[in-house]
Design goal:
Elements lengths: L7 H75 L1
Length: 83
């Protein structure tokens, strides 16, 4: 069985390779952070739109119910006069 010896050159080459890979990973991580920040911004914008739409629809629903109650009250008050 032959024994393999690892030289300092081998270790230095391996370190350099690992540093290069770590630098690539840091770059990819920075890109992902940027994309995540962009998606957060989009999500906040969409949440704001949803809140606005919800408030608008709620107002419309309240006004419609109020109008229906007034209409019903008018019918109830007018029924004895008609009948």
């Amino acid at each position: 069985m032959a024994t393999e010896y690892v030289t300092h050159r081998d270790l230095d080459a391996l370190r350099a390779e690992m540093r290069g890979e770590f630098a690539e990973m840091r770059g990819e991580l920075a890109e992902l952070r940027g994309e995540l920040a962009e998606l957060r911004g989009e999500m906040k914008g969409l949440a704001g739109e949803l809140r606005s739409e919800f408030a608008s629809q709620t107002r419309t629903l309240i006004y419609a119910n109020f109008g229906a109650m007034l209409g019903l009250a008018g019918i109830i008050l007018a029924a004895p006069r008609l009948g």
